[in-house]
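Mods, move this if it's the wrong board.
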Amino acid sequence: MSNSSEAEQRPGLRERKKARTRASIREHALRLFREQGYDATTVDQIADAAEISPSTFFRYFPTKEDVVLQDDFDLLAIGSFLEQPPELSVVAAFRAAAKETVASVSESDLAGLRDTTALIMTVPELRARAMDEYSRTINVIASAAAQRTGRSPDDPAVLSLAGAIVGVIMAATLPWQGLADGEMTPKDMFDRIDIALANLEGGLAL
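Not the wrong board. Structure tokens:
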């Protein structure tokens, strides 16, 4: 009985260990970026600070840029999105998932968001790569929406709706410079996202 129970727990333990390692890498990377600048910080320095090998770093993040651009908000939001009641529309379910995700993250996660936003706004290669992330996010949302609706992720209607969700979020958050400068809080930003999604849910009527 105990062996079976332990076996059932192992995948969860492995996933939690991977999540801790990933969080540790990002934490040390952001600290080094603050202390000595993004360009001056190397992958070897990040790996050394996180007490891992460079090869382990690359198992979690394909590039140094991805430490800044990749976060767990997408994973949390999509997981919550798929668990929303089936009677909710895709936009209503995404809006509810976004609220749940914001409520579940820690203050340190929000502080990390401020750091990564500042980097994206000030490092040219990160700003350019951020546009690629928007394209990836559209595909992620389209795949999840397809699961909820039983349609194909390539369905034009699904892709259009996913693009609309990302589009209103972009429009609401393009003033990210305010977040980077401390003129806007992460809560302010998420409030703007909720208003944008509410407008989309209402048909974007003016």
